[in-house]
Fold this sequence. Notes:
Helix content of chain B: 55-70%
Number of helices of chain B: 16
Structural class of chain A: mainly alpha
Largest interface: A-B, 12 and 9 residues
CATH architecture of chain B: Orthogonal Bundle
Radius of gyration of chain B: 22 Å
Largest sheet of chain A: 2 strands, antiparallel
Number of strands of chain A: 2
Oligomer: heterodimer
Number of helices of chain A: 9
CATH class of chain B: Mainly Alpha
Order of helices and strands of chain A: HHHHHHHHEEH
Largest sheet of chain B: none
Order of helices and strands of chain B: HHHHHHHHHHHHHHHH
Structural class of chain B: mainly alpha
Number of strands of chain B: 0
Strand content of chain B: under 5%
Radius of gyration of chain A: 18 Å
Amino acid sequence: MASIAQEFTKGFWKEIPPFRLVLGICAALAVTKSLVDGFGMGIALIFVLVCSNIIISMLRKVIPKKVRLACYIVIIATFVVIVELITQAYVYSLYEALGIFIPLIVVNCIILGRAEAFASKKSVLRSALDGLGIGAGYTLALVFLGALREILGRGTLFAGSQYVINLFGPSFKPYAFMVEAPGAFVCLGLLLGIMNVLGD
Amino acid sequence: MPSSEIKYRNLVISSAPHIHEGRSYSGAMYTFIIALLPAVIFAISRYGMDAARVIAVSIASAMASEYIIQKLFRKPVAINDGNALLMGLLMAFILPPSVPWWLIVVGCFFSILVGKQIFGGRGGNTFHPVLLGWVTLRFSWADYINYSYGAINYTLNFSVEYPLHVLKKSGAAAVSGLNYLDLFLGNQVGGTGASAVLLILIGGLFLIARGVISWRIPFSYLAGVAATASVFWLADSAKYADPLFHIVVGNVMIGAFFFATDYSSSPANKTAMLIFGFGCGLFTVLFRILSNNPNGVFFAILFMNILFPLLDKIRPAVPGKVMKEA
């Protein structure tokens, strides 16, 4: 059995969701137009993932096997609504930027995957650490993807916050293709390829 | 050691074909390049050093990208096969002569990396690599690769407005005054080399005569353009331009003879070729007429590139194969 620390650290490289598990791709492609958007999405996902992992792990002996998915969805949806209301109240610009992808966290396959494969079998502490690690890995990946696309596609960093940095000066003509949807696929595909080369 | 290996060690065993005509892949690529040379000379004589600069930068960056990527991927370096050279030349042909150098470099690098090498290199690409590169440029820097803007600084003895822009903006009446023979001879604004319509056509016919490409795709392409444009024209000749106009302007000629006939992104069977070419022509005109975008050729070819593996399923029955009864 893996040590407690390993449950946390595996999310950063060995099971980093978009790159190694190729999970949560829909949101990873859609919200990584900038670093800030990617980071916000990652934080929202960490919150939902950790909370739902803890609750599901607590209830793992109570939930009947036959209706477990419905139960998981109810628990996850509860936390997603909390996240949605909080972002709407306090960080409205992020709420606008993420749009439909906050409610869509409910059907994010990372969360359901961790609930089904991990939290429903392991102890509460392990489930919490697993959620934290996987969520942090996801955030890391989204931040990286968002930064790459933002630098190439807009020539800025931290756009959407108060600390916008214009990297290449005003004469830079950004490669706007990268912030379009096809650019996201190309970018993610290239990163997956690089990760596979480095990982082996 | 088994005795059979000793016995037959002087025999070379290989799979078919056993008789080789002597042509090679790189031979075909260099024939393509020779077919484009008249248009290169035409472009340089018209736009001077700017055309030479675009062509040189494009070829150099395509070949450099190919070399770097093949080194990185630890593949045998095959920049001598002429494919990268051809890709660079084609990229230069469809860009206006005024584009900045970095735009060409980005376009060529994307073409070779994502369009060609990621799909498995030579012979593996599903889409025409240059067109994929062009699409990313179109998304990013539409103003730079706009043919009308590109020609603004040249003193030319004909209108410096791209005929398809005129058509989109002012309707069919505005282009009805144009002399089609003049357009056909290359007196129109367009890509650096692609606007030399007559020379591209001659190059294409040369390729067909040499047996490098089949006549089926280019001619069914032109037929597709003519047929679709005729339908619109006959329905309302005041609103839509006539078929001849659609054939002689823009990138139809280079698209039909040099882009749609790319070996690995077009079908290999005869019926499929005809359908592929006709489909390209059909969508070219539909995109030109029904979309906001005045150009249609490249998007039409990319769209048909997606369909070509399906089209290639249309193939003649294998001789001797017995059909099942009902």
